[in-house]
Amino acid sequence: MFLFKLMNFLTGYVTIIVMGESPEKLINMAATRGIFLWDITRLGERALRARVRPGAVWPLRHMARRTGCRFRIQQRSGLPFLWMRLTRRRVLAAGALFFVAGLYFLSSFIWSIEVTGNRRLSTGEILQVASRAGLNRGVLRWRLDPPAVEEAIRTSLPGVSWTGVYIRGTRVTVEVVEKTLPEGKNLSPVHIVAGKAGLIKEVLVLNGHAAVKAGDTVVPGQVLISGVIPPPEEPPSGEKPSPGAPPETVKREPAFVHAAGIVRARVWYEGYGEAPLAETLQRPTGREFTRVCMKIGAREIMLAGSSPIPFPQYQSETRVKKLPAWRNLQLPVEVIINKYREMESYRLIRDRAEARRLAGERAMAVVQSRLPRGATVVHEQLDELVVRGTENLVRMKAMVESVEEIGVERPFTPGELQPSPSGRAESVPGGPSRTRPSGDRQ
Question: Region Disordered: start and end of each range (predicted)?
Fold first, then answer.
């Protein structure tokens, strides 16, 4: 079928209207004479419409006289007739050729350059190196050498480990992958404190002094691994204590370290969710309305669609298309496409089991949004909250127990109040002495 239509377009065809007492005689006589007619359609009792090749029009005139019919040409279609019309309208043909040539000429240049993947390096720095390698706005596409630009970026920027230059139409995308530099080790004194309340499950100290043990209950901000290592107390070297005399001790300075370790604890979360037994919702009807306008500066020109929106309830979606910037020139022309989808209201009735399931999912979603990455859920529980009287809501509460890492770093300076095993704040060497308990009123 496609080849038949293509051949008819290349050779051309005419559409004729046959009129007479019996136009079928003309069709039958043409078929017996080897003239092919197709798409024969009856327009009335005395009229037919058919399509035929241009070379068969002259023989059909003689057959029409013999059968007492007449016909007229309704339309000429195909490439030969299109070419004849273009030769009579030379200015239009020249304009079309000029438009195609101009479009091809403009599409041969690079008009926009995009840089992706850079985080530490600035886009301007990458574009400056690419410009020295020949990548500029306005350069011809076939004069651009992507491998040379890639090599120049890798050579000139030591922070780039890989780069790729891709040409897509009139846009060039420069994709870079930066080197991963090792971060300097932080040796400043810090504590590991509790980021949230929980019951300690295990403590693994890599550096520092453990301030809690398994089974302790901690609150947010409480020190878990202290960055202050207390000094050991030893007798003076070379001296033996006399019998019955209290041993003399040599006090050493405490060590201030960057505490490190893993503290895992059992943490409990609560979430609340509700679902109505009956509610009014909206759904799309399938009808859409699109409005297109051109904005030039502060002026808007309507291109398609009416100004008032024909739907009483709708959802809107807006897309803005701008002309690509050329060098430092940005034209203040935008095409704004607003699509409106008609919505209708409907009443949704749920049974209590469905409402309980939906409220439970919402309560669990609240808890899941608060769970950190790496947390292991060990227990889940859903309870329905029943209130006195009847209401249109089903309320659910979710209880989730997880095991997770709760330690966070908190820097400190030597000399500030440090926690002691007894729960009081004590001063340490290296700063002013402050011995007021943490719970006393000032």
Answer: 228-250, 408-442
Long-range contact set of residues 369-376: C-beta below 8 Å, sequence gap at least 24: 370/269, 370/271, 371/269, 371/400, 371/402, 371/404, 372/404, 372/405, 374/404, 374/405, 375/267, 375/402, 375/403, 375/404, 376/402, 376/403, 376/404
3-state class of 241 per DSSP? coil
By the 8 A CB rule, do 212 and 226 touch? no
Task: Tell me how crowded residue 225 is: count the other CB atoms within 10 A of its CB.
Answer: 26
Nearest to 405 by CA among 101, 165, 148, 194: 194
CA distance 165 to 269: 49
66 lies in a domain? yes
Measured CA distances, 85 to 7, 10, 51, 72 (Å):
20, 15, 20, 20
Q: Let me know if residue 159 belongs to a domain.
A: yes
Does 120 share its domain with 74?
A: no
User: What would the two tokens of residue 413 be?
Assistant: 């300076």
User: Is residue 284 a contact partner of residue 311, using CB atoms and an 8 Å limit?
Assistant: no
Neighbour tally for 432: CB within 10 Å:
8
Residue 299 resides in a domain? yes
> Is this prediction's pTM over 0.90?
no
Q: Which domain holds residue 321?
A: 278-349
Q: Is residue 409 part of a domain?
A: no
Record the tokens describing residue 331, joined without a space: 């034209």
**Among 300, 334, 349, which residue terminates a domain?**
349
Longest dimension (CA), the chain: 152
Q: Using the 3D structure, point to which of 304, 320, 349 is the last residue of a domain.
A: 349
CATH of the domain at 60: 3.30.70.260
Sequence-distant (≥ 6) Cβ neighbours of residue 330 within 8 angstroms: 323
74 and 26, same domain (yes or no): yes
DSSP 267-321: EEEEEEEEEESEEEEEEEEEEEEEEEEEEETTEEEEEES-SS-S-SSEEEEEEEE
Return d(Cα 72, Cα 17) in angstroms, integer. Answer: 5
Q: What is the mean pLDDT of each run of 10 residues along the chain (442 residues)?
A: 78 86 82 84 84 84 82 84 78 82 86 89 89 88 89 88 89 89 74 94 92 93 91 60 57 83 94 92 91 85 81 90 75 87 92 93 94 92 86 91 94 69 46 38 34
